[in-house]
Amino acid sequence: MAEASDFIPPGSAASLSPVERAAIVLLSMGEEPAAAVLRCLSREELLDVTQVMSRLSGIKVDWVRTSLQTFFDDYREQSGVHGASRTYLKRSLDLALGGQIASSVLNSIYGDAIRPKMQRLQWASPKWLAEQIGHEHQRMQAVFLAFLPSALAGDVVAALPEVPAGGRDRVLLQMARLSEVDAELLAELEDLVERCLAGLGQQGATVEGVKQVAEILNRMPGQRQQMVELLRAHDPGVVGEIESSMYEFFMLSRQSEATLTRLIEEVPLELWAVALKGAEPPVRDALLAAMPRRQAQSFEDLMRRGGPMPMSRVEQARAEIMVQVKALVDAGEIQVQLFAEDVVE
After folding, report:
1. What is the DSSP string of 288-320?
2. Taking the chain, what is the end-to-end CA distance rounded to the nearest angstrom?
């Protein structure tokens, strides 16, 4: 996601992305109804839409009209018949099968009652969760991770300490062997989850130190390269992260047409076609605007023919392009605007 200061408004209502339209609808409905909608979103969806909500400004009447019209058009296509809620099914199954059997059936449909509590832990940092379960026995760690969303579980596993006798691999092996969790272990898991939820507000704040240093260096007049080399002498690894943060893909949206034209000549169109999959509209629009009309049409056809791409391949393509951008900057062949600011001719 781009920073709030990086936001470039769309040229017309037709160019609004689905997330931007959703953000406008939420902003139009008031705080309490919007909060009720946000509670129904996944962590990723909530972060995506709230970041767009925070950086939308100067919203035009045409944008609001189009977004609301699209929303109500989609709404009218719904049948009005909704699936049964858990409460409805529990009452029906209790009457039909009895309490114990009904609970078993509901658990097979919705997952155990522990899952909603585990869902709340998606807002904890993986490192903090790894610290909370680090002293538990490996079977408990495995059960805990099995009930987390898979993406978060993967980050927590990566944050677990790797001990000489084996740690992460044995936890994953325990997870692979899980089929059912007995009541006693489930009770232990619930106690662990309650402790985590109770301490959720005590976890430390996340500070993006690398990104902040990159922003500071970007704004240093004249002595930036000298400072980078001084930092490199202390910690080459951290300096590598700082340099990567200085050259992030979204920065392409704020480059001059001359710079983008040079980059389009340097980077194969096939690589651009991969890198722009799922890219934010300002990046895509800036690059297309720098191409001749016929080339832009051919490029859009190339992107469509490429079909869906794994995110790992897209990120790799973007990284390769930014390596070439940095090389051209270091060689003095192009000048880039590393951060969002006003420019004058």
Report:
1. HHHS-HHHHHHHHHHHHHH----HHHHHHHHHH
2. 29
**pLDDT score of 164:** 46
Tell whether 137 and 193 lie within a shared domain.
yes
| Residue 93 forms part of a structural domain | yes
Q: Report which DSSP code applies to 325.
A: H
Question: What CATH code is carried by the domain that includes residue 51?
Answer: 1.10.220
**DSSP result, 88-156:** HHHHHHHHHH-HHHHHHHHHHHH--THHHHHHHGGGS-HHHHHHHHTTS-HHHHHHHHHTS-HHHHHHH
Q: Which residue type does 92 have?
A: S
Q: Are residues 254 and 323 in the same domain?
A: yes
Domain extent, residue 289, equals: 247-330
Question: Within a domain: residue 207?
Answer: no
Those residues whose C-beta lies under 8 Å from the C-beta of residue 53, and which sit 6 or more positions away, are 23, 26, 27
Calculate the CA 48 to chain-centre distance. Answer: 7
Q: What is the pLDDT of residue 202?
A: 67
**What are the backbone angles phi and psi of residue 340, rounded to the nearest 5°?**
-75, 120
Structure tokens belonging to residue 277: 């999959």
Positions in the chain whose pLDDT score sits under 70:
1-13, 79-86, 104-113, 163-166, 202-208, 218-225, 338-345
Q: Left if phi > 0, otherwise alpha if psi is -120 to 50, otherwise beta: which for 56?
A: beta
Rounded alpha-carbon distances, angstroms, from residue 313 to 247, 310, 316: 18, 5, 5
- The count of domains in the chain is 4
Whole-structure pTM value: 0.45
Question: How far apart are the C-alpha atoms of 145 and 148, rounded to whole Å?
Answer: 5
Amino acid at 31: E
